[in-house]
Amino acid sequence: MFQFFANIFGYLLDIINQFVNNYGLAIILFTAIIKLIMLPLSIKQQRSMKKNVELQEKLKVIQFKYKNDPEKLNKETMDLYKQEKMSPFSGCFSAIIQFILLISIFNMVRFPLTYMEKVDKTQIDTYTQQIKDAGMDVSQAYSEIDIIREIDFLRENNPEDETLKNININMNFLGLDLSKIPQQNLADWTVYIIPILYILSTFVSMRLTTSMQNANKDKKELTDGENKETERNEMEDAMAQSNKMMSWMMPIMSVSISLVAPLGLALYWLVNNILMIGERLVLNKVVKD
User: Fold this and answer.
1) Mean pLDDT across the stretch 63-85?
2) C-alpha span between 98 and 128 (Å, rounded)
3) Which residues are paired to 177 by β-bridges?
4) pLDDT tens track for 85-120
5) In this structure, which of 39, 107, 196, 282 has its CB flanked by the most CB atoms within 10 Å?
6) In three state form, how does the secondary structure of the chain look?
7) Backbone dihedral angles phi then psi of residue 120, each to the nearest 5 degrees
């Protein structure tokens, strides 16, 4: 499944790259297109987030009321979900989509010759061996990135190779080499620019989400004229706990991968975060309950 989506994404990124002739700019445009395609899901998530605030307050009341009667608690909880036309697993679908995108785009960035240029594996192995025979280092995990880095050497040694002539991936973007991997270039301070910006944008995104949820909660309480405080339930809501865990797990996973993956992947996540922040601000104003 991941290979299927990596192939599709590779076709799209290659078309954009051929048009702009810059890998970094192509990733930015690619990210914007993916975000646009996912807009209907984002709108649905925004509506669910607003509705979930009201749902959580009702769940706390039910959980406190029936905390000593698990069977009644389960029944009332499911009835509430049906009444509100929501699923207790609605957050899981979004998480699955994010995971598919994460792995598929990681594979696409890791193997650009396979998924973008559609180069045969036998040829890739041949190029890898030629680089090794010349005494150059080749990463086992990112051999295709190394081939692109040493493309001039390969072209000199294979002047009749049409495949090498047709490879056009310019990884220099605003003075940054998007083929570099932070873990392998610890002495180069430039490899930390994009990951650090990505980390900062992640915390901004998480803070924004929390602020929007609290704002929606305050708005709901004022609308209902509720001035009383509900005693906190001893049992945490399963869905809220799952969403909270996922909101931290995905960024931590992404940051960890960005340090051991080519900078092109971190650039995708950075641009995606920036677009997501703007998207949430706009949708919060536009999308109604």
Assistant:
1) 73
2) 32
3) 172
4) 666 566 667 778 878 888 898 889 889 999 999 999
5) 107
6) CHHHHHHHHHHHHHHHHHHHCCHHHHHHHHHHHHHHHCHHHHHHHHHHHHHHHHHHHHHHHHHHHCCCCHHHHHHHHHHHHHHHCCCCCHHHHHHHHHHHHHHHHHHHHHCHHHHCCCCCHHHHHHHHHHHHHCCCCCCCCCHHHHHHHCHHHHHHHCCCCHHHHHCCCCCEECCEECCCCHHHCCCCHHHHHHHHHHHHHHHHHHHHHHHHHHHHHHHHHHHHCCCCCCCCCCCCCHHHHHHHHHHHHHHHHHHHHHCCCCHHHHHHHHHHHHHHHHHHHHHHHHCCC
7) -65, 145
Give the orientation angle of helix 263-286 with respect to helix 238-258, to 10 degrees.
150
Residues 150, 156, 158, 164, Cα dihedral to 10°: 50
Q: Give the CA count within 13 Å in the CB-facing half-sphere of 96.
A: 6
Mean pLDDT is lowest, of 16-20, 46-50, 75-79, 272-276, for: 46-50
pLDDT digits (tens, 9 = 90+) for 8-31: 999 999 999 999 999 999 999 999
Reading the block at residue 71, the tokens are 């069977």
Amino acid at 44: K
Give me the chain's average pLDDT, please: 79
Residue 217 — pLDDT band, cuts 50, 70, 90? low
Whether pLDDT at 244 is above 50? yes
Tokens matching residue 141: 């995990």
Q: How far apart are CA 176 and CA 170, in angstroms?
A: 11
